[in-house]
Amino acid sequence: MKLFKSLLIAPATLGLLAPMAATANEVTISDFTPAEQLAITNSRVDGLEARLNNIEAGSFSETTTASFSANFYAGFTYDEDAGNDRDDNLGTGYDFGISLNTSFTGEDSLDIAIDAGNADAPGIVEFDGDSTTNEALTVDEITYTFPLGDKTTVMVGDNNDASALFTTACVYGGPSNTLDACGNVNAAVDNGGVMAGAAYDFGNGLTAAVGWAGDENDVANEEGIDAYGVNFAYTADSYGVSVTYGVTEDGAPVNDNMEVDSFVALNAYYTPDSEGLPSISVGYEAGEDGSVVGDNDGLSNFFVGLTWPEVGAGEFGIAMGTRVNTVEDTDAQYMYEAYYSYPINDGMTITPLVFAQDVSAANTDDNTGVMVKTSFSF
After folding, report:
1. Are 16 and 40 in contact (CB under 8 A)?
2. pTM of the prediction?
3. What 8-state DSSP symbol labels residue 216?
4. Is it the case that residue 251 has pLDDT exceeding 90?
5. Nearest CA to 306 among 331, 282, 335?
């Protein structure tokens, strides 16, 4: 940002100095007394500083910041499905992100995320990296957050989750896409699109939030797919609990009305004070698939994760949970993972991950994988 300022200010400075040079050719130093010479010089310097300050103030906001991140991925997936053996295939990829943030009042925040990348290879897809068309920079989401009174926060935006202001009681920080929801998979409505939400802080750790999201082209009408939810959470120094209720239209209209899927998720965590003991996070979710006719409309998810925040210089974690929604009266398909996140320095972190996934489909092996993610922030 300073470079851009310099590039703008330099021509302006030359423009201001040019008339000064012309004036110097018209008069000689002997035409003025020393006091008059000093006064003229100070006046010109003050004018130059004022004009440069106006250029800076009009071109850039002092509250605007930009941060950058880049991730590199590599990994193997060991499985065989439909006769495609990928046991020896190494997948690689990357993504890059820009986060722009600014404030107009000191209490509000306009946030824009810009992403690019190619991170959908089979060996690394579990890391949930960003992939964009032609690997071009794309605006991923934009939100505006502002206070409404002393206790209420409001957010509006596009391409963001309805649950953006929800608090899920979970401290597990695993890098995988499947387990990072901590069991709050469907209730934390994440259909994206245009969104609006609000959170209220009761004080003493108790919060409540609501959120809605829908299609940009069919906002809150019968054609668009809408989702909404409500969340309550309580967090203390070493533990927390939350309950989340979410409803999502499933996109299958019946008599001009869409069926809805509804879920309730319970989450909790505990962080012991004793060194060497891990924090524990648990989650359970239950709901109904509105498009299913009959008794097998129930769906559920389960999660438990342990985190040791100080193992050597890094963090170690293990977790297990359902890989997909468990349909009522069927066997659950689980995923197991372990990771170690190691900071090389303030701007670089390496995270290896190993995982195994149950697969119930006929003639399909269970999945196992080994992946490494290298993250840079600057």
Report:
1. no
2. 0.78
3. S
4. no
5. 282
% the chain with pLDDT above 90: 54
Q: Give the DSSP letter string of 238-253.
A: SEEEEEEEEEEEEEEE
Residues in the chain: 378
Strands (E), the chain: 65-78, 80-81, 84-85, 90-102, 109-118, 138-148, 152-158, 194-203, 206-214, 227-235, 239-254, 257-270, 279-288, 298-311, 314-322, 326-327, 334-345, 348-357, 367-377
Confirm if 179 and 335 have CB atoms less than 8 A apart.
yes
Beta-bridged to residue 152, according to DSSP, are: 148, 200
Phi then psi dihedrals of residue 244, to 5 deg: -130, 135
Q: Provide the phi-psi class of 70: left if phi over 0, else alpha when psi is between -120 and 50, else beta.
A: beta
Spatial separation of the C-alpha atoms in residues 241 and 226, rounded to whole Å: 27
Q: What is the mean pLDDT of residues 14-32?
A: 42
**Domain assignments of the chain as residue spans, ordered by start:** 2-56, 149-345
Q: Which residues of 333-363 are buried (b: 16+ CB within 10 A; e: fewer)?
A: bbbbbebbbeeeeeeebebbbebbbeeeeee
The span from the CA of 63 to the CA of 44, in Å, is 30
Contact 198, 209 (CB under 8 A): yes
Grouping H, G, I as helix, E, B as strand and the rest as coil, residue 134 is helix
- The per-residue pLDDT for range 87-146, each reduced to its tens digit, is 567 889 999 999 999 999 999 999 999 999 998 887 888 888 888 878 899 999 999 999
Q: What are phi and psi of 50, to 5 degrees?
A: -65, -45
Q: What is the DSSP string of 42-61?
A: HHHHHHHHHHHHHHHHHH--
Pairing of strands 334-345, 279-288: unpaired
Which residue in 365, 375, 342, 369 sits closest to 353, CA to CA?
Answer: 369
pLDDT in tens, 284-319: 999 998 877 777 789 999 999 999 998 989 999 999
CA atoms of 96 and 370, how far apart (whole Å):
22
The more confidently predicted of residues 201 and 77 is: 201
Q: Which amino acid is at 146?
A: F
Tokens at residue 141, please?
A: 């989401």
